[in-house]
Amino acid sequence: MIHDLNGNLLAPLPADFGLKDTVLVAGEQIVRIIMKFEPYSGDYVWHCHRLEHEDHDMMRLLKIIPSNLNRHKSN
User: Fold this and answer.
1) What pLDDT is stored for residue 7 in this prediction?
2) Residue 52 — φ and ψ, nearest 5°?
3) What is the pLDDT of residues 2-30, one digit of tens each?
4) Domain of 58, in residue numbers
5) Which of 23, 27, 48, 66 is positioned for an S-S bond with 41, CB 3.0–4.6 A?
């Protein structure tokens, strides 16, 4: 779900409801999204659909860690 556009919270449009795997971002825009991966974990790829952007760090790996994993173990 799209959370905000350029820092302004957005009320969802009817077309924004439901599962999405693509978000249209115009030039100079910043879009924040909210995603739920549970119960899935592992590696996902996020990327821009403009192929020339791949060389400019617009294709990255996103590692999802299970929420029940204790990452702060005491010694």
Assistant:
1) 75
2) -65, -15
3) 666 677 777 767 776 777 777 777 778 87
4) 2-64
5) 66
